[in-house]
Amino acid sequence: MSHPQLLSDLPNGTHATVAGLVAGADAVHSATVRRLGELGFIAGEPVHVLRRGPGGREPLAVRVGDTQFALRLAEAACIQVLPVGAA
């Protein structure tokens, strides 16, 4: 079984499953982590990394279910995922 990775570390095009939310960088408050859960970043949900901003930076465009989001890297670092096909 693979270990969870952070959504912020995945390359473009990666499909994964949300494993959970964690308190990430100091710049992200617990209210933001709670809001990510309310938006649909909950364990078991499929997530697809669509693309990154200029130079591979922010924002990180992702799709959860049928909804697309643009996340800051600090927010994406709060989302643990299991890449699909990871062993």
Describe the model.
- The structure is a single chain.
- Helices cover 15% and strands 36% of the residues.
- It has 2 helices and 6 strands, in the order ββαβββαβ.
- The protein has 87 residues and is α+β, with helices and mostly antiparallel strands.
- The N and C termini lie close together (6 Å).
- The chain has one domain (5-80): SH3 type barrels (Roll), CATH 2.30.30.90.
- 23% of the residues are buried.
- Strands 1-6-2-3-4-5 form a 6-stranded antiparallel β-sheet.
Summarize the helices and strands and which ones pair or pack:
Elements: E1 5-6, E2 15-21, H1 30-38, E3 46-52, E4 60-64, E5 67-71, H2 73-76, E6 79-83
Antiparallel strand pairs: 1-6, 2-3, 2-6, 3-4, 4-5
Q: Could you provide a short overview of the structure?
A:
The protein has two helices and six strands.
What is the count of DSSP helices, taking H or I runs of 4+ residues?
Answer: 2
Largest sheet: 6 strands, antiparallel
Coarse shape: globular
Q: N- to C-terminal separation?
A: 6 Å
The percent of residues in helical segments reads: 10-25%
> What would you say the CATH architecture is?
Roll
Radius of gyration: 12 Å
Number of strands: 6
H/E element order = EEHEEEHE
Q: How is the CATH topology named? A: SH3 type barrels
Q: What oligomeric arrangement do these chains adopt?
A: single chain
Relevant CATH superfamily: Ferrous iron transport protein A (FeoA)
- Secondary structure class reads alpha+beta
Range of strand content: 35-45%
Q: Give the spatial strand order of the biggest sheet.
A: 1-6-2-3-4-5
Mean pLDDT: 90
Overall domain count: 1
